[in-house]
Amino acid sequence: MRERIKSIMLIILVLSSLYLTNCLVFGQPNLEMADSPQYEQLTFGELKPLEEQVLPFLRLQREEAIWELAPWLPHYNQAWQRARQLLQPGLPPQKSDPPAFLTGLKVQIDFPTAVDPDLWSGSSLFREHFVQAIVWFASHEDVVWFLDENDQWWRAGGLILPDGWLSRLEVAFSTAQVFRFARPEGNDFLKIPAEGVLVPKEVPVMSRYTLAPEPLDYDKLLHSMFVNMATVRRIEERNGIHIYTDGQRGLQLFPHGELEYTIPENELGTRPLAITELLKNTAEYLHLLGGWPDQLYLKNIKSKRQVFENGRYFYTHEVALQSVQKGFPLVGIDAVLITCSEKGIVSYNRQVYQLEAPEGEAMPLISPEEAMAAAGDWWRLQAGNNLLLSLYPVYYVDNANQVQPVAQPAWLFRFENRQAVVDGYTGKFIKWLE
Amino acid sequence: MDLSKAKTLLIVAFLGLNIFLGYKVWTNPKSLRQGHVLTNEQIEEARDLLQAYGFHLQTSIPKQIPQLALLHVARYTRPLSFWLNIFFPECEVQERSIGQERLYACEHGILMIFDNGRVTYKAKDSPTTIMESSKALAERYLREKNLWHHSLRFDQVITEGVKENFRFIQTYQGFPLFFCVTEVYLVDGSVTDVKIDRVVPLRFAQQEVTVISALTAIEKFVAEGAQHFTNKTIVDISLGYYSQDYNASRWEVAPVWRIAAADGKAFYVNAFSGETEGSNF
Fold first, then answer.
1. Which of B25, B207, B208 sits opposite A24 (nearest CB)?
2. Quick one: B87 and B158 in the same domain?
């Protein structure tokens, strides 16, 4: 009897050891106790350094001759490196009248958005001021004037420039575009500043081009936007739009190459972002969502404040980037438009086009005077009262939302508060830009 | 060594081994079981939560927390002749387009075919018979018109004035597709309106994800949807699929928890993310 009990016990022990071994070997870990899944950090290109995001227009003026360096022109970096030394005055700034009364050789820096100059200079003298523009006159070489974000001019002295600074700057400007002031006669419709309208000295020769969307790895982009693809729904709309959504965020891919990524829950930001924080976030967003190719340049930054019924304020910011091709900006669309709050991206629109093939031969645009004369007709209809400041040659993106968009050579009329595009070959009004 | 001693030694050895294995199994992560369920305490918690917001439960709270995948669907399209044969056989039809709708009229009624695939029929004739409206009557009508499909499942009846709306939900492999409803409106036993929203379910996506529990869905409901429910009788808490209306020919649909009241109002919680997916307030 005792031996039988022993045998039964032994059998039970052998079987239970087999069962326990099976549990150990084949049992899967609980979700809560399993290691977190390792998601690959997907990025596009290099992270754009903060100081390379805001690139101002540089202008050197000697009497009537003006040289302008846009950020996409050769030797720009060299000139900007020199011009940056104007950001380090030795004395605290004081309120001033606009330096319009001064003449002679002048250097001007125009930022695309009001920015903290400490981004480059490390100087604390500008601490309380965000700067839109900086002006320096050779006749007052130890002083800079700057325009702050509230359109107030300031004067800061104590500037010490190294020997030969100006001559080295002038060398860097050797590849700059030459501009002049045009004073069209017999045009009573356009209001023009006393010194004239800034226009290129040489009329550019441009071709109409077909445009193609940038090559983008959409699969990588999807995995970068959505953490768990198992929860992402794909919707193929009958108009060719593909939508991806996990219920919290959505991505729309349009057939013409545009993409729109939205996260509505980030919409109500509870505090405004500082410019450096905003720029840092912008660089990170682009690093994760398609990259910041060399052809993209910061165009402007807008901040919005909304007040709700309960008296609380909500903040969002819009960062627009423009695309530049063959030395001319593409206007009519924003290549990248990011709306964000301190919570993250609210919406991200991207339609980066590249010039594909020329349509016909390159032809010179009509002269700025001819364009301004043609403007009389449409300007009269608009009953505008703004001063016309400058004319720039650009590519206007036509048929932006169609299957085959094209880049139309055009003149960009820059007024005080608005911009208009006219056909570069005919002077025919195309549209107002927002 | 005799056999008895050997057995004793083996028993001691296996006992030691089992203690060791038992310890390892105990301390190691537990197996992930497909039939993960809510405990009775959690069910009670969900019930109490609904009661605290004044809701009365006429259905059970599902215990299961399964793994589900997205569902691929395609738009249900039929040629115009199919619908005309069903609703207007041997009848002269007049056609009109209003916006994105196509409207067909004949002496019996009006048929509208929407761009998103929805089909609605409105009878012109007044009811001639007085019968009690019933689910069986509505189902019989659908069968007679060849609109019945084995995937249709009766959902609920909603009284809208003098009309009684008998709702049948399309299902796929047992899962209700809450956005695909065939509604038959009856007045005194006569059909006055029919609304048809259907899709063609294609397949489930490969990757499965553990859904949120009914308790989590109820927590979301009381936080965001409960205040919109005037009728406080909950008649359904169940898992299924729900989608917004898209201008698409193919799309994927997420699993949802539906919390529905007796008056037909429903609140949908995405069973993956726990976010509000939709409602019919």
1. B25
2. yes
Q: How far apart are CA B229 and CA B235, in angstroms?
A: 12
Q: Which residues in chain B touch residue A30, judged by CB atoms under 8 angstroms apart?
A: 29-32
- CATH number where B212 lies: 2.40.128.690
Q: Give the closest residue to B151 by CA, choosing from B169, B137, B138, B134.
A: B169
Helix (H) or strand (E) holding B135: helix B135-144
For residue B196, the SS3 value is strand
3-state secondary structure at position B26:
helix
Q: Report d(CA A211, CA B111) in Å as an integer.
A: 46
Which amino acid makes up residue A82? R
Backbone angles phi, psi at B135, to 5 degrees: -60, -40
Co-location of B94 and B157 in the same domain: yes
pLDDT score at B119: 92
ipTM for the whole complex: 0.71
Q: Which amino acid is at B241?
A: Y
Dmax of chain B from CA atoms?
103
Tens of pLDDT, residue by residue over A153-179, are: 999 888 888 888 999 999 989 888 999
Q: How far apart are CA A13 and CA A24, in angstroms?
A: 16
Beta bridge partners of A329: A324
- Same domain? For B121 and B153 the reply is yes
Instruction: Decide the pairing of beta strands B119-123 and B109-113.
Output: antiparallel
* Token pair in block for residue A408: 């139309």
By Cβ distance, the residue of B32, B209, B252 closest to A30 is: B32
Residue of B nearest to A230 (CA): B207
Chain A interface test: which of B2, B9, B31 (most A C-beta within 10 Å): B31
Distance between CA atoms of residues A115 and A131, nearest Å:
5
Distance CA B182, CA B146 (A): 13
| pLDDT tens per residue across span B42-91 | 999 999 999 999 999 999 999 888 889 999 999 888 888 888 888 888 88
Domain end marker among B197, B224, B250:
B197
pLDDT at B126: 61
For residue A286, report the phi and psi dihedrals to the nearest 5 degrees: -70, -35
Range of the domain at B159: 77-197
Alpha helices in A238-366 (DSSP H): 275-288
Top-confidence residue, A414 or A125? A414
CB contact under 8 A, A24 and B273: no
Locate all alpha helices (DSSP H) within A127-217, ordered by sequence: 165-172
Q: Is B14 on the interface with A (CB under 8 A)?
A: yes
- For chain B, what is the mean pLDDT? 87
Instruction: Name the range with the highest mean pLDDT among A270-274, A315-319, B85-89.
Output: A315-319
